[in-house]
Design brief:
This protein has 116 residues and is α+β, with helices and mostly antiparallel strands.
Length: 116
Amino acid sequence: MVDKQKLEQAMEQFKNCSPVFIALGDTTRQKILMDLAEAGESGINVAQLSGKSILSRPAISHHLKVLKDSGLIEPVKKGTQIFYKLCLEHKLDSIKTLIQMVEDIMKTMNKSVSTL
C-alpha cells in the first residue's frame, strides 16, 4: 500500500514543476533554451534570438516570458538592453526531487505487488 502522505507530497511537487514542464513542452522554447546555452554566461538579447529564428521579436518575447515565468531563464540588464541567460539549477533540483519521489512510490508499489 502506498502512503497517502507520500502521494500528496508527490502531487504537490508535480504542481510545483508544472510550469517547467509546460515551458519545456514547446519546441520553439526548447530551441531558445539551446540558443541561450550556446550564448553562455553573457546571455543573448531578443534581437539576437530573432536573428536565429523565423519568429518575430514579439513572438520571441512571448516565449521568453513563458521561460522567465517558469524560472528557467533570467533577464540581465546591460545598459539599455536586456539579455537572457539560463537559470536552471534550482528548477532541475525540483525535477530531480520529483523523480526521486515517484521512484520511491514505485518501489513501494513493487514491494506491495511482490508480497501478494
